[in-house]
Amino acid sequence: MDGKNKFWKGVLVGALVTAFAGLIVIGMAAGIWVVGKGVMGNQTAGISGGRATPSEVSLDIDRISQKMELIQGIISENYLFEEDPEMVEDGIFMGMMAGLGDPYSTYYTEEDFQELMENSIEGEYCGIGAMISQNRGTMLMTVIRVFEETPCAEAGMLPGDVITAVDGENVTGMELDLVVNNYIKGEEDTEVTVTVYRETTDEYLDLTMKRANIETPTVEHEMMENGIGYILVTQFEGVTAQQFKEAVDDLESQGMEKLIIDLRNNPGGLLDAAVEMAAYLLPDGTIVRTEYKNGKGDEYYSENGQLKADSTAGTRLNQYPVEDGHELDIPMAILVNGNSASAAEVFAGAMRDFDRAVLVGTTTFGKGIVQSVIPFTDGDAIKITTAHYFTPSGFDLHGKGLEPDIPVELSEELLQQAVVELEDDNQVQAAVEYLSEETAGEEPDDPGMAAD
């Protein structure tokens, strides 16, 4: 009990420290994001970080500028240490985004933005091999996936472990991306000690491991018994759509008759990837619709084998290359849970609205908003929430999530296992049972209600 009290005390202290620091650092977080040059049209053309006029924003820019000059004068005359103007400037922009009170809107320095774009495309980094999620209410960082044969797996890290410190420094309450990029990642073969709190044993564990070059495939697949294909999608990155198509093609070549798509613990990512993947399986039609602050929006759809996006603002967005009109009309089940978010929900919602798949598992995260990453000409960028999105049927899942058609909680004993074989996974087996009954022309027991 004493251990738990200390833990939650640490949570509070860490949160307060972060609040007083007023610092938002880079990050993808769980969610959909798109590069903003299309979304924002010509509004950001030629922006180089200059000030907006008071008529363009609701802030009193003149008053704020005068106060900043006053503060700068005090700093120049009284600050004991040497001022770094570049850090101060970055801090101003970070604070402005933090002031929105939106956990998904943030500022990227030039270096941060370059690293972000490289990582989103390559899917490769030097770290420990864990996927970590952060609760935006408590700021707790929880391990949700441990990749096999990685440093963290060999050190004994398990899903459900809560990260509290790195190399002895308390990181509770800090932004996830700050912890990952500045503390956990590092040079190859260097040691890092990650302290975790494990609720099942009520203890803190110091797990020491050597960083390694981690290449995490975003898509994995295999053929199960009885013609059932299985595809695991861990996140939606620049390489994911192509990897997914190749997985579907390979399973089809092996005689796949039914398909399970595993989106559990998938935090989201690129909207384009989710749309392209859904279009590869679905017939022509709307895949997702977005709506902006002004009531206008975009519609992503497939038509005659071509992926398109139309904007009610009168511009054509995200034009895709012509596909071969591929469609997959076989019984399908999609595995979801409370960590399936944003782009994962776009994909799952579209598949269900087209009546091509049922959802198995637990209610999804419920993030139905879109972030646009808007680069500036001097190399930095902001990520800002710009739109709601809706499934093809018009369902707004934000704050609610997608309810499963077949509710199944993961067995308690499996929650703390780093690796669970498909034959031992009760949620996977529930999907197998549904697909077997569907193939036999039987209705599954208690299918639940679909969200509409």
User: What's the story with the biggest beta sheet?
Assistant: 8 strands, mixed
Helix content: 25-40%
Low-pLDDT regions: 1-30, 42-55, 313-323, 442-452
Strand content: 25-35%
Structural class: alpha/beta
Radius of gyration: 23 Å
| Oligomer class | single chain
Mean pLDDT: 82
Assign an overall shape.
globular
Distance between the termini: 44 Å
Number of strands: 22
Number of helices: 11
What are the SSEs and their pairings?
Blueprint: H1 2-21, E1 32-35, H2 36-39, H3 61-78, H4 85-98, E2 106-108, H5 110-122, E3 124-127, E4 130-134, E5 141-146, H6 151-155, E6 162-166, E7 169-170, H7 176-184, E8 191-198, E9 203-210, E10 212-215, E11 219-223, E12 228-233, H8 240-253, E13 258-262, E14 269-270, H9 271-281, E15 285-292, E16 297-303, E17 306-311, E18 332-336, H10 343-353, E19 358-361, E20 369-375, E21 381-390, E22 406-407, H11 426-439
Helix pairs in contact: 8-9, 9-10
